[in-house]
Design brief:
Layout: E1 2-7, H1 15-30, E2 35-40, H2 59-70, E3 73-79, H3 87-95, E4 105-112, H4 119-131, E5 135-136, E6 141-144, E7 148-149, E8 152-153, H5 156-179
Parallel strand pairs: 1-2, 1-3, 3-4, 4-5, 4-6
Antiparallel strand pairs: 7-8
Helix pairs in contact: 1-5
Protein name: NAD(P)H-dependent oxidoreductase
Domain NADPH-dependent FMN reductase-like: 1-146
Pfam families: FMN_red (PF03358)
């Protein structure tokens, strides 16, 4: 199982990076057999989406698309700017194939300087995941600037919530993977209630 952490920040000293990294640490610590990879957009030279087939991109852009497409689950974090995730993260979602997250599990983390920004998790992140037909684990984590000391998380409650988020991403991914065992079998038709 491969869980990708994606930090949608271009900042070189990112609180969001630290939060996503901590969640990945919890996932790996509690499940040493899984693979975790943390992609930070500031470390990649990602091109802007120009509408071409995602398979035609090269360099860091291709690497990012390939990594995200091959993952089993995700922990995605972004600082909140103007009430939503960053433009850099939006570009990533424009670049990836429409089915890259289909049926996969996503846990969201957001950081910000006002408590009202937690609403972005409900009104921005979750609808985006819905468009991609991804499963969002309950308990997205919003971390206010006050929860950090020297850019490190200093709130025990937030650390507990990050650990729970990581655990839920791994657990739900395992359940979904079991659902697809023997996927060669014909699908059972669904009844439509009228």
């Amino acid at each position: 199982m491969k869980i990708i952490g994606l930090t949608g920040s271009l900042s070189s000293s990112s609180k969001t990076f630290n939060a996503v990294d901590k969640a990945l640490d919890f996932a790996k610590y509690n499940n040493p057999e899984i693979e975790t990879i943390h992609l930070h957009l500031k470390d990649l030279s990602v091109g802007f989406c120009d509408g071409r087939d995602p398979a035609l991109y090269e360099g860091d852009t291709k690497h990012l698309i390939d990594q995200l497409s091959s993952a089993d689950g995700y922990i995605i974090g972004s600082p909140i700017y103007r009430g939503t995730y960053t433009g850099a993260l939006k570009n990533v979602f424009d670049l990836i194939p429409n089915d890259a997250l289909r049926g996969k599990v996503v846990g969201f983390i957001a950081t910000g300087g006002t408590y009202h920004h937690y609403l972005a998790l409900e009104h921005q992140f979750k609808p985006l995941a819905g468009y991609f037909k991804a499963h969002v684990v309950p308990g997205s984590v919003y971390i206010h600037n006050e929860h950090f000391t020297n850019k490190e998380i200093s709130s025990y409650e937030i650390l507990e919530r990050l650990e729970a988020l990581a655990s839920d991403v791994v657990s739900l991914t395992r359940l979904i993977d079991k659902r697809f065992e023997g996927a060669d079998q014909p699908a059972i038709p669904r009844k439509v209630l009228v």
